[in-house]
Each structure stands twice: as structure tokens, then as C-alpha cells.
Specification:
Blueprint (H helix, E strand, L loop, with lengths): L9 H11 L5 H12 L3 H14 L11 H8 L8 H31 L5 H7 L3 H19 L9 H23 L12 H21 L6 H17 L11 H15 L4 H17 L9 H9 L1 H6 L13 H11 L5 H22 L12 H7 L13
Helix pairs in contact: 2-8, 5-7, 5-9, 5-10, 5-13, 5-16, 7-8, 7-12, 9-10, 9-11, 15-16
């Protein structure tokens, strides 16, 4: 998809997005359907548990159709620009702690504002436990994608995208079989909802970074967006919903959000639990209880009202250390006392909390590449060597 998207009139855009609510992911859906049809679900479950625990497995060890899926779904599109990918990841190196804050406090709540798409999350969530896990897994995905080499052949980000794509297909299959899905919501995890979610990782995050004091250059914004555009391709998002330029991505995000945002009991319930869990993850002292104010500040009052986020009650003044951190990162500061204090108070403590919470179950501990761990001053979890992969 190119800039032609912005040349569509309102009716054409609506028709395109309406059609995308009925469209899913033929490649991944066919794999899941074949596994169920041929009674291979047991072996597939064992394989997925192995992937969760070990995160990698050789193609020759996989049964068909999984072997073909992983081989095909990892191919790169012709439009990938390695230089842009590198620049986007370099920006993440500079502002990674703030980017994680943006993902957790802006991207996730934005997803909950989609009254139809949130139904899948609500149906498959065990609320408190799953939302905390989703926070950690979201942070891990971002670090894997935007870390050095994450989108190179065999990189962690590519592996994550392939597995998420397959899990989306499994969710679609199981939700349909549950008998609890309302056809008026469109298909579960449909193309419009997938595109909207992807845009929270790119343009919503970029917008939140600006509010946090880090204003990317046009080149940086395009580079960061380009990386997530590639992730969308790997996750099976229709290329018609993957605009080339970040300006187009911003426009598409606004159009999709205007279509899908609405108040819902499910979205409000998930947001309430998210705020509660963030209060346990966010650093204490001056930031204690500030998660609701941070979400309202980053997503804006109209979206926050849809989600029944409590009013800020003047707590926004507590966010100045975050904005100071963003400005220092933007200016390229090499640290200094103020930078160290701000990082200690928020960015590094948030990441440290995520690292120490862990990913749960059989999942390996939270992984941060050595170069990022050193840059952000985040210690490894005891018993898990730094940089282990």
C-alpha cells in the first residue's frame, strides 16, 4: 500500500475497512484448521509449549504444516529498508524506557477503547493474571523487535511476530468454536483490528513519546514506524493497511479509531484492572498511584472517558520527571546527575519491575540485550545471565 490510501474518498475508505472486518489471515488460519482437521492439536500444543519455554526450534523438527508456515511467514517484503530499521532501533536504544511506558500506558489502553476488538481480549483473558502477563509480554515484544538485530534473519522480533500471528489464528478458531462470538463484531482478530493494534505500537507510541518530552525528528519517526510496518507484514496484516509513510499511518490510525472507539463494559473492566496492576509495577514514592493520570494524559481525555479512567486530580505535576527524561534523551545527554536520578525514579525502575515480575509459567525470564541493559542501567534477574538468548 502506498500514498494512494490518502487519495481514497470517505466512502471508498469505509468500504475498504468494512471489508477488512470480515477478513482475517488465510495463511495462518489454514495452518490451524489443518492441525485440528488432522488431529494434530496435541503435537501442536506440545510444540507451542516448547516454543514458549525455549523460544526457538529447528525447522526440521517441526511437523507439517508448521514447518512450511514458519519458512514462508518469515520472508521479508521487497520494500524493507535495512538502514531505516537500524535507525529506528537506534532511536529505541535512546528512549527505550519511555517507549515501554508509552506502550503500556498508551498503546494497551488505546486497544481497550475498540469496543468490538476488545471482546476477543476479554473472552480470552483471566483479567488480573492475564493483564499483568500481557504487560510483560508486550514489553518483551517491543524489546525483541526494536533491540539490535531483532528484525534481522533469525532475530527475536521476527520469531515473536511469527508466533503471535499463529496464536491469533488459534484464538480465532477457538473463539468461533466457543459459541460466544457475536457476528456483528466482525471476525475475531480481523484485519481492521489487527491494523489498529499495530498502529498503537507505532504512531500511538510516537505521539506518547512527544507528550513525554521526546520529539523525534521526521527521519526518526519514519524509521521507528518503518520497523513496525515490517512487524505488521510479518504478522499477516494486509498490505493495503500498511501505509508507507508515517504521515499516512497517522491518518489511517485516526480513521480506524474513529470507527471502532466506543464505550464498553469490557474495555472499562480491562482498563480498571490494568491501572490496578500498573500501580504495583510503577515505582513508588512520588509516582505512587499515578498510573491513571499517566494513562489519561497519554491517551487524551476523550479516550480516557470512554474507558472510565479516573480524573487526574492534579497528579500530572508528578509526570514532570518523565518529560525531563524525554528532553534529556532528545538532546543526546550522556547522563549526568539529573538523567541518572530520573532514570532511577521511573524508566529504569519500571523496566526493573517488569524484569523481576517475570513472564510466568514455563516462559523464560524477561530478556534484554546486553547493549540495551547497559545503556538503560537495568540489572539482570538473579539466576538469569545478562544477554542470554
Amino acid at each position: 500500500m502506498s500514498r494512494d490510501f490518502l487519495m481514497l474518498d470517505g466512502h471508498e475508505t469505509s468500504r475498504l475497512l468494512d471489508s477488512m472486518r470480515a477478513r482475517c489471515d488465510p495463511l495462518a488460519d489454514a495452518v490451524i484448521q489443518e492441525l485440528f482437521a488432522h488431529g494434530q492439536v496435541g503435537s501442536a500444543n506440545a510444540l507451542m509449549k516448547h516454543l514458549v519455554a525455549h523460544e526457538t526450534v529447528a525447522l526440521e523438527q517441526m511437523p507439517e504444516p508448521l514447518r512450511s508456515y514458519f519458512a514462508h511467514s518469515g520472508r521479508m517484503p521487497e520494500w524493507v529498508d535495512p538502514e531505516l530499521l537500524h535507525e529506528g532501533q537506534a532511536m529505541f536504544n535512546r528512549c527505550g524506557p519511555l517507549a515501554v511506558v508509552a506502550l503500556v500506558c498508551a498503546a494497551l489502553p488505546t486497544c481497550y477503547a475498540g469496543a468490538q476488538g476488545v471482546q476477543v481480549l476479554h473472552l480470552t483473558a483471566r483479567m488480573e493474571k492475564d493483564i499483568l502477563r500481557r504487560v510483560v509480554e508486550t514489553a518483551q515484544l517491543v524489546v525483541d523487535v526494536m533491540g539490535p538485530g531483532g528484525l534481522s534473519p533469525g532475530g527475536w522480533g521476527i520469531r515473536d511476530a511469527q508466533k503471535v500471528r499463529l496464536m491469533h489464528a488459534a484464538v480465532r478458531y477457538l473463539v468461533h468454536r466457543s459459541g460466544r462470538w457475536n457476528p456483528e463484531w466482525g471476525q475475531p482478530v480481523n484485519q481492521e483490528d489487527m491494523a489498529g493494534t499495530l498502529l498503537t505500537f507505532s504512531v500511538v507510541t510516537l505521539r506518547a513519546l512527544v507528550k513525554l518530552g521526546y520529539t523525534p525528528t521526521r527521519r526518526e519517526a519514519q524509521a521507528y514506524y518503518h520497523a513496525w510496518r515490517l512487524v505488521g507484514f510479518l504478522m499477516g496484516v494486509d498490505e493495503r493497511l500498511l501505509p508507507e509513510r508515517v504521515e499516512e499511518g497517522n491518518a489511517l490510525a485516526d480513521i480506524i479509531f474513529s470507527r471502532v472507539f466506543a464505550p464498553s463494559e469490557e474495555g472499562r473492566a480491562m482498563t480498571s484492572v490494568l491501572i490496578e496492576r500498573l500501580d504495583h509495577l510503577l515505582p513508588g514514592h512520588i509516582f505512587e498511584g499515578v498510573s491513571a493520570s499517566l494513562i489519561r494524559y497519554l491517551v487524551g481525555d476523550s479516550t480516557a472517558d470512554l474507558l472510565a479512567v479516573p480524573p487526574s486530580d492534579g497528579a500530572l505535576s508528578l509526570l514532570e520527571p518523565l518529560r525531563a527524561l524525554g528532553r534529556l534523551m532528545e538532546e543526546g545527554s550522556d547522563g549526568g546527575g539529573m538523567m541518572a536520578r530520573v532514570c532511577e525514579r521511573f524508566g529504569r525502575r519500571l523496566l526493573k519491575s517488569i524484569v523481576w515480575v517475570g513472564r510466568g509459567g514455563e516462559r523464560p525470564p524477561f530478556r534484554i540485550p546486553d547493549v540495551l541493559r547497559e545503556s538503560w542501567r537495568v540489572e539482570e534477574r538473579e539466576g538469569y545471565p545478562a544477554g542470554a538468548a
